[in-house]
Design goal:
15% helix, mainly beta, elongated, 151 residues, single chain, two-stranded antiparallel sheet
Length: 151
């Protein structure tokens, strides 16, 4: 995995590339039905390309923003399924509005030394699969759209 970060005046461009060279063999009733070798993405949680920044306002307040995409390098595609929010913080705490990691996900990942790629990340993925089986679920438990968080 390749990670990077570049800081400009009030913004940071960051991300990582999650690619692997692997072999996938599928067997049906003991007979090989598919054998593919090549590049594949989303091996350790998915690649990410994001921009985040903040601006100091008067009175000790700060405005912030974050927008991320998940590039599919092996398929020349991309997805806007990651975080995208704006926020305001100060002596009162921090308020963020938009699509962002859920508190359940933040709490789970916060106690795992491996972060989102460790045991907590794997558990969150299993929870997400179970959640997607619920009719009309709409969003995953990892990121909630149209949400407001106050810390």
């Amino acid at each position: 995995m390749l990670s990077f970060g570049v800081t400009f005046a009030q913004a940071t461009l960051y991300g990582n590339v999650d690619q692997a060279w692997n072999n996938r063999t599928t067997k049906t009733a003991g007979v090989v039905s598919s054998d593919k070798t090549g590049f594949a993405s989303i091996q350790m949680g998915g690649g990410i390309l994001g921009v985040r920044g903040s601006e100091d306002l008067s009175g000790g307040m700060k405005a912030s923003y974050n927008i991320e995409i998940q590039p599919g390098i092996d398929e020349n595609s991309g997805s806007w399924n990651r975080q995208s929010f704006v926020g305001l913080s100060g002596g009162f705490g921090a308020l963020r509005i938009g699509k962002q990691y859920s508190q359940a996900f933040n709490n789970t990942v916060g106690v795992d030394p491996g972060g989102a790629t460790g045991i907590a990340g794997n558990n969150a993925f299993v929870i997400q699969l179970a959640y997607l089986g619920v009719a009309g679920a709409g969003d995953s438990p990892l990121r909630q759209r149209n949400s407001m968080q106050y810390d």
